[in-house]
Amino acid sequence: MYKSQMLINARPVASLSGxxxxxxxxxxxxxxxxxxxxxxxxxxxxxxxxKKAFPAWSRTSCQKRAELLHAAADIVRERxxxxxxxxxxxxxxxxxxxxxxxxxxxxxxxxxxEEGTRNIGExxxxxxxxxxxxxxxxxxxALITPWNFPVDLLAWKVGPALAAGCTFVAKPPSQTPLAAxxxxxxxxxxxxxxxxxxxxxxxxxxxxxxxxxxPISRKIAFTGETKTGRWIMAHAAMHIKRVSLExxxxxxxxxxxxxxxxxxxAACSQRAFSNMGQICISVxxxxxxxxxxxxxxxxxxxxxxxxxxxxxxxxxxDLGPMFSEGQREKTREHVKDAIEKGAxxxxxxxxxxxxxYEKGYFFRPTVLGRADHSMxxxxxxxxxxxxxxxxxxxxxxxxxxANDTEYGLAAYIFTNDLKTALCAAEGLEAGGIGVNxxxxxxxxxxxxxxxxxxxxxxxGHYGLEAYLETKHIRLGL
Length: 477
Ligand code: NAD
Fold this sequence. Notes:
By secondary structure, the protein is an alpha/beta fold. It has helices at 40-59, 62-78, 80-91, 95-116, 152-164, 178-189, 204-213, 226-236, 261-273, 293-305, 325-340, 395-403, 418-427, 460-465; strands spanning 2-4, 6-8, 11-13, 20-24, 31-36, 122-125, 129-137, 140-144, 167-171, 197-199, 217-223, 242-246, 251-255, 283-289, 344-347, 366-369, 386-392, 410-414, 432-435, 454-455, 468-476. Helix 1 packs across helix 7.
């Protein structure tokens, strides 16, 4: 069986306690790997290693750091097939999506290699002095990530942290540590100084908590649930640490009367069901102009029913299993709650039948009609493949409904009218607005949430700034 150890000081290490855990494939519940499980003590060792490596790495020229980050991207690409297979085996997503995730994470390293070389300062002229403004690396960063995109979301942190001159300790999710650890190993193998890139495994409540609470870490970059983000923010406050929080979402998708319904249905289906709805920017609530609701819903159902479900290692599969029985049970509960409150089950709503689906956590893409805001699917993060449709009369009404949530990560609108698009984009309360597109991730643009969906931004130059402190040097004349 594949064995996954932690990475401290550029060496694979077992946990001090010797404890191991087994990772199971969500498609068939077969064992995939044995993984070392760390504790607070292992986390402290990794933090010490990162602290020791920081002075030299922070003083390394940005050109040298860029060279190493490009080399790291190349190694990730060379090992992409091995890392992608591990990702499919531990998380369930189809291999084609896993491959895309690994290639995208290599692109992130290339992007920040260059972005790091653009960290230039300022020169300010005053009557009796001159001022130099420097942007310097914060220090040791703790990078804590979730199971739905364990490699890409880590790359969003590793790239800018290293480019800025920070060293780091990454804590991948306990349930999916394999591909993320291989990703960091590939980065480390590019020739980084020992201790610059470390990985510890283990429970968030122990290993994650140590990374947050230990004064060695000066920056916490976290992606995960809003309730974990709240805990991290509160505990990081003890040392006034810098935090970036990418948290939960409940994203609305508005379809106006004048929209291209075929394009809207295709975009909606893809963003509601891919990765089995386990994406922070998944479409969770669909608001459709009443005049076109029936036609749009029929197109959406056709798309949902055309998706092929199966083991992610099979070549022509669109959707793998859900990640865990817990996720599937929550999805069932949300669907049941909606139906009890008056929703119409139009498609899906249960597991697919057949031997191939017997052991895995499979669930059919589900379309609900007559949805309203009393239902949990319209208020909570289901994190499952459910698309509830609600009709609206005016675009203003749709925007108000879209904003009626504590979350604010992404929002989408499909319309062919420029004024409607711009007014809606300005009125929607979210960090990313998709107009006639179903994705708000763009490597060069900021990504992050409003309200309880997060704090700070990743990607673009914003992502780099999150790892830099500002210093003013005043020179008297
Ligand atoms: P989670 O919050 O349970 O866990 C995320 C990570 O935090 C894991 O590595 C976990 O071990 C660790 N952790 C848990 N408790 C901790 C603590 N007390 N201190 C430090 N670390 C701790 O989230 P999850 O279930 O793995 O992921 C799903 C969630 O992530 C969803 O809510 C989803 O919306 C969110 N998410 C957000 C984004 C975004 O960019 N906004 C992207 C992907 C996922």
